[in-house]
Amino acid sequence: MSRAKKFDFNQIKNYAREFRINPTDSEKLLWKELRGRKLSGYKFLRQHPILYKGNLKRYNYFIADFYCYEMKAVIEIDGPVHEETAEYDAYRDEEMKDLGLHILRIKNEELNNIEKVLSQNRKLSKFNII
Prior knowledge:
CATH architecture: 3-Layer(aba) Sandwich
Low-confidence stretches: none
Number of domains: 1
CATH class: Alpha Beta
Largest sheet: 4 strands, mixed
Order of helices and strands: HHEEEHEHH
């Protein structure tokens, strides 16, 4: 009988760090608008681990593209790969909603006009940003 692998939060932090080192172009673009509390004074973290349904031996986790603790909000940037992972994305969204988080998904192509994305009340007003 094999023993369960011990939980290692440092490993999860290293995964998140790797994602921060190699952001997509869309993530870079949105990060310029979010960093330094530029968006209505809210602090966002990028590539932030979110733990769920775990115990001290085993945690499940997601790494959110952008996370704001003050608003309990997650912003996910959806590139072409998300067309193939829609079912998993829906599962992730439900798990995060169960944690009391609000999720906003933005498609890569929407960020071609970043000003429009930032001014769209119907998306960002869900978080009471605008």
